[in-house]
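Page 42, continued from yesterday. The earlier attempt failed because a stray header line got pasted into the input along with the sequence. Redoing it now with the clean sequence only.
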Amino acid sequence: MITAEQNEQLHSWFAERLPVDAYESLLTVTVDREEITVVGTVPATESVAAFRERTREQRIEVAREAEELYRRKVSWAVQDGEELTLFTHLAVPVMTRLRQPERQVLDTLVAGGVARSRADALAWCVRLVGRNTDTWLTDLRESLDRVQQVRAEGPDLTDSQKSES
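This time it went through. Structure tokens are written below.
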């Protein structure tokens, strides 16, 4: 997880490299261990499909540079009113061990036609939690940012270990 300051730097990096006419405005740059997702608003005079085609080469060029620098895949999206359209994005497998009561929840979602598989059911649960606990997750992320800041301000343990040798 990256700090809010690192996220701001990443946002600035993309804002500096994207052509002025690419997005109407750059909304968010979100990052995790595998992927950076860049979201902006599509110009009012343009369809999502036209925007995607017009900016393809520019986005590829910026993505190549970012992927080499940050060692993560870059995904692109546009916000058009209330509609978010992702152009490219990763679906990353996640391994977990679940006990029977947890598996039964997933199996109930599959049996009820909510999901096609346990994997889909788990993704559905994660989306549901994300939607219903957004404020709590935001508070938790901010707390993690603060923990990383405090750690960074602490002593460098590798230096003290070298001097003891």
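Notes: The CA atoms of residues 33 and 44 lie 33 Å apart.
Reminder to self: strip header lines before submitting.
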